[in-house]
Amino acid sequence: MAQVSERESWRRGERQRLIALRLALAPEERQRCAAAIEKNLAELLAKLSGTTIGFYWPIKGEFDPLPLAERCGREGRIIALPAAIAPGAALEYRAWRLGDAMEPGRHSIPEPRERRLVQPDILVVPLVGFDEERHRLGYGGGYFDRTLAALSPRPVTIGVGYEAALLPTIYPQVHDVALDFIVTEARVRP
After folding, report:
1. Are 83 and 118 in contact (CB under 8 A)?
2. Angle at 103 between CA 110 and CA 108, to 5 degrees
């Protein structure tokens, strides 16, 4: 897999395979995994300092972090959701509370309508795939990588996904940054 085009082709194929695998989970299995992921993620967040947490709006069978985000908000933390403001740009994070007006973003993913910008101390991001080195395989748009490169100071990063998305490697590229933690239904990888 030395050539870039071979690696990109492999990454595209793995994205499709892992998303299909995730979408094919039986409802009871998805519910079991979600409960375990939420428990592991909640325990990790309780140990981390930081008042502002960037979460995500779930799509394509991803773990839904919004109930946990609401709970963190009730506990006094500031919750934010990302907004894709332009192609090739970093994401901006907008403060969010349950009931806030939402609008479809660039990729039809709901974003807070009101532009109350915050800088997260902690970022919780979805995984399509990941490896033991805590590299993340995302959807291929590069939004998260650009966002991490733009944020200073760098937030604590937590990737969230299913254990079945573990790969021997994602063939990380120069811009791929290892996450601080990976949370699945099976465990937390520090």
Report:
1. no
2. 50
Sign, CA torsion 118/40/138/74? negative
* Predicted structure pTM score: 0.95
pLDDT in tens, the chain (190 residues): 456 689 889 999 999 999 999 999 999 999 999 999 999 999 999 999 999 999 999 999 999 999 999 999 999 999 999 999 988 899 999 999 999 999 999 889 999 999 999 999 999 999 999 999 999 999 988 898 899 888 999 999 999 999 999 999 999 988 888 999 999 999 999 9
Domains of the chain from N-terminus onward: 4-189 (3.40.50.10420)
